[in-house]
Please model this.
Amino acid sequence: MKSSRGVTTTSLIIYVIAMLIVIGIIATITSFFYTNVINLEDSSNNIAEITKFNMYFLQEVKSNNNDIIGVNEKAITFLSGNTFTFQDNGIYMNSSKISENIKDLKFSVEEIDSKKVITVLITIGENLEYTKTTKYVMD
Model:
């Protein structure tokens, strides 16, 4: 008969292997979590920059008795005197920077059913991964 005293070599090896598996699983889950948290922060920053631009731009578009007096691909000027311009990876309202880390911005205007519709295409992200097209109807 075998003695049942102490820890055998086999049980010690099984214990070490089980602990290595558990540590590997925890390391993989932790790495996955922190990688996704960093990606989430980037997306929320992108959404925040678009939201800041929308806040100012909607106020201008929805103002009474306002009209577009000039537009090109990188700038739009309103009758109120405010101009939105894309330059230096930012969006400016007159001379104030309202959004940053913008990779590209394009304005275009068309008339649909006797209303002016402004189309804004914004591209954000290190690798141009986030693009948003928004149409604004002038009141």
The mean pLDDT is 86. The chain has one domain: 9-137. Helices lie at 9-61. Residues 53 and 63 are 16 Å apart (CA to CA).
